[in-house]
């Protein structure tokens, strides 16, 4: 059972695969029925049969979660406590089965995968797992768990990036709305992968090196009553050359100047003094990073003038305020109004770049609201997105599943009454074919024994199920999709796990390379996924052999017929 | 800073509060802006001000997550590595601030909470946290994270239990669709709390003692080709008195008998032999727990007759098969047809209780589909529910928030342009008043200084915002809602954390005690939440004082007015 290089753990060490990010990702993290089946396979002597399984993506998806899967198998081992627990819940199983589990690791498993951060399409396998059937069965649940949410939220993040555009700053603020601590940590990691710039989650920043962002909340503003609450009012200038003894007085002077400014025609009256105190106090703590939440009381009547007074006072001392955050109200209107004030003050008081200060918006944003803001016109530079991003409101789960496609070199096909559950059988190689303009044209799946497609050579791409749909393609460039990330006992060269930054880069690059009509929000053109002529013939001969004869038109039989005319690709 | 009994850790040990379930629940699990604010408070010397904060539930909710919050504060401490990381991301902060963080724990924090598993209603605080403002600020994000999803999924589970009815078995199958490992573990824990009977998640079974369930998948069935693949065909009878040398032959005999049975009029023809092999092999491994997934090929033509043949063969040897699982197709129709066959065979072959075998259904079920099945009529005994349960499709996030309600004994109210964000200020006591029939009538919030309501004594309950809505209530029984779970340096008696089973019991009991019209699926009657006359006066005097004078009808000003006529309670 042990791999050529010794145990899986030794293998992991040799390849510097660390522990899974989540300490919960242990060998017990699987469905009970996987152990039931492992026992039944073991009992029948089938546990060492070699099985080949594929998880599939359901729609246009960014594939994520691979690194965690590889770390999972690298660390896959039952502790003695695990064994004792399993014995207690499965008392009917023979002792020798538990001895088998004690010795089980993933030395003998091989994992082939599309690189993490790739754009993937329905029916193309994301990953192929080969190994003893009992072990592969135990990996099914944790792999699907580690891939499903990861891919879903990365895809969601990429969609947000696409609608916001390249120039905007995207901040992930989902910690308090995710499924517990680790749901949140996954969200932060994979939103960054999908194109976000930073997170509010400090632990995720620590674990993955993701940039952190965050200033203050409404509660911070509410906690102040008056300017008297600031004990030390002195602030050193940025260059250290002088000390302003009473920064609060300076702020008050600026507030008066703003209120009297001709160019603003006296639009600002009394502002909230506790808010002013909170801003002044915050600026004293963070003179180099002053970004204020301006909607605790009233954005235009209090928040903006208070902020500007503090920002201009900071400017006197050589600092440059960062900007504001809006967390309620009409974000399009408020951002435009705020920008007007900033620009007016830039001119009025000759403060360079004051008009360009960052306006961050953060109130229950999602793809649709950002799209709506774009259509209305707005002056937001940076979006803070939480709930809709991390819970993936528009589609709260991804349908990735594991399919048994081959056992002991015999292809297997699962025929279900539900057509969406039918898989493409056998071990396959998958290629992405690129056209002249550099766009990917089509993905093609082939039998393992077939020669690879070559650049400049014509190849027939067939729809997997519809006989009439076929086309010849001459690719300019060919990319093999499935690569070896865990060679097990095979001597195949292994792809090293890239860094999170590299994966993020791949994701951004892949999305840019796609023909824009494939990723547009409205009525995107479906990307074509095809099979080779040989694989087409093979699938259809297998279907004819496997399908039991249906001899009547009963209700159940009708369900059964569906699988003969699937049309879920286009 | 240290508590009367020494450090928080010592306190935790004394009360046997263990580590949080999730190893990720460390002091760094918070939003960056909490540290920014902690620094700003510290810088302004306000960090030790005593703040009082409340998270609120947004709708009818089962409150969950308390135990994890208490464990979190019991273990709240920054490691030297945490400090180094924080210094690296906040280089602008003074060193003395990090010294302050090094010494920070939750000895000086007090937590009052509604017991976990309680049914709660909008506007009543679930929890009150009192302590130094900088520390309470750091707790906001993790508490909201630990409570939001926990309460959401517990509520969702309770709703599923309500629609399924008491007699059905509910199984949580969400591991592969949750937000990563810990999302899944939380889902398993809180679904059990909300009334589920078991989970498929082995690790959750191990961590929380939740019963485990699971048999086999479609892949297991697909992995077999023929009956020849079963090497050891012998099976000992249940009482150990004899050995059946060829169980497979016995199964085949039974299959023939079923096919020829008069009472079935030959409805069964050829069945799928690989499925038969998989069932026979599984029965040999689990003769005492034989439950088969019958829809891999064709439920009525293959799965049911194959299952019955194996079940009847087991019966010959003194075993009792458990039943079947349906994972596709028309679950109402198939369960009724399967039940008919079981009952017919019970009579035909005189096999007691064969008609009562368990029928489990598990295909993308949710509250609505179970309700639809109930209306159609079905024979399902047990529901396996995954995606819709754990992702909470119908509402993927709960709006629990933390509100600053008091600082240094001064009440604080947050006035937002968004009316839903307005809170009820000041430290409050909350009571549930019960009527003659034992149903809760109304929750009432009171000022801390007021005397508690008493059974048999008339008390005025007012709508918090509408002057005309008020009623006198004479409670038969009064329950104080907020109890002390973490006394900090106070000498208040502390409520011990109950076991998961006890919390589940409370949840079931509370739901049963509610007037049925409050929890019915369609147009439920809103439960009344009220304030005392004194609290009403206090809130409204505070509003008058806090609201800035609005002197024009600009757009922003209109937003601002909204808060004067909130009507979100009914």
From TrEMBL, chains A, B:
Residues 427-538 form the Nicotinate phosphoribosyltransferase C-terminal domain. Residues 318-421 form the Nicotinate/nicotinamide phosphoribosyltransferase domain. Its cofactor is Mn(2+); Mg(2+). One of its GO terms (biological process) is NAD+ biosynthetic process via the salvage pathway. The keyword Coiled coil does not apply. Signal peptide: none annotated. Keywords: Glycosyltransferase, Ligase, Magnesium, Manganese, Metal-binding, Phosphoprotein, Pyridine nucleotide biosynthesis, Transferase. This is Nicotinate phosphoribosyltransferase.
